[in-house]
Amino acid sequence: MYARLAIRSAKRSWVDYLLYIAAMVILLAVTEVSGCIAVMGKTAGFQAASLPVLIAVILIALVGYINAFMLKQRARELANYLLLGMEKNRLSLLFLAEFLLIGCFCFLAGTAAGFALCRALVLPALDRGMDYLKMTPSALYARSLPHTFFYFCLVEAVCAFQLYGRIRRLQIRELMYEKKRNQTMSRTYNPKKWGLVFLAGFGCLAAAVWGIAFLPEHSAGFLISVAAIPLFITVFAFYQWLFGFLYALRREKSASLYQTNRLYILAEITSDFQTHAILNTVFCLCFLFSAMSFIVGRFMLRPELALFERSVQQWMGLVQVSLCVVFLVIYFSMLSLQQLIQIRQEAESLRILYYIGRSALQLRHLSMQQTAVRLSLPLLIALPVFVPCVPLLNRKLNCLLPGTLHNILFRFTGEYLLCTFLFYTCYFLAVYLMSRRYME
């Protein structure tokens, strides 16, 4: 019975499944690329095993969000199964088994796509400059596949455990209204406290950057190793404060919110404000890691800068640039899919807006605003943190590098921002066109 009803549901909700499969394939392709880089790094004598671990941590947050979306979309269907007499434990296991089967298909497609991308972009660069790394593409795929499979199983196990517990806790009545349920602010949640934590973290980060720029090398080295801690605290606290503040602002129902589309966009952002705060923290860190990887990689690929043996330095530069691409793909792809998921969840609201007099042109304009806000939210703290650090760090590098490389950090930063702008434009247009077609 469950199989027949699940197939019927899949036919009705094929767009939801398509979004789920697309997200999983992209994430697993990124995992496969990171696995290939780790295997090549180990073969070349470098340690790159931490990269797949970092990607796996990001995947757990993103896959958990996608699973929660699918549960919301099918919650009423699960409630109907319970009303028909199916045991909740059996229903939960069957629901998880369904996602496991879809995950296996996504694993095969994602690893194939990731390896094809790695072979097209990374291996040609290795052939040009790193002849000492002797490994056939088939051998690389055979060695990277177990790594990807291990992290795939880890992510699936953690997310399945979270999803199973959530289904077990929900009663039939709660399942019936799960799709329309919004997160509420708990009594212990205080945005002002998060604002103070943000200011403290930002102050520590500013002090660390100032120390790196002006203190001697032996002291600056220690600050470089610990600067990531206040950076993470700053980003996390900022989004906890921001979404809490926006949620409180929506509850105040100020008259200014009723102008244009402000209230609608604000309600859409804060409907799941705690989840969105965590996701935007992940996306912001992806952007910052991508920027740092690009700049370090470009430094390593400069022939004038001889820090290591030539082939070793070229490998390190290639790895860093590959990391930049990986984090940018995660950033823009997942934000774009998140926007498409949000449009799917708002189908009824958009239909109501159309019925009460909003024209198709106004709805398309609303879609553009939502897409721009969604893609820009992680940059609200990333750019204020990243851009002011560049002049200070450039001053330090000018003291260490030869005159031919002075102010080169500004050039690398400009190249990265241009690359980000191109990614932003392409993904914005793609999401807008897909959402416009869906609304029509």
TrEMBL record:
Main location: membrane
Record-linked InterPro entries: ABC-4_Integral_Memb_Prot, ABC3_permease_C
Pfam families per UniProt: FtsX
Keyword set, alphabetical order: Cell membrane, Membrane, Transmembrane, Transmembrane helix
TM helices/strands, residue ranges: 17-40, 46-70, 91-124, 144-164, 194-215, 221-249, 277-295, 315-335, 372-393, 413-434
Compartment(s) of residence: Cell membrane
GO cellular component, one term: plasma membrane
ABC3 transporter permease C-terminal domain segment(s): 51-129
Domain of life (superkingdom): Bacteria
Annotated membrane topology: Multi-pass membrane protein
Name of this chain's protein: FtsX-like permease family protein
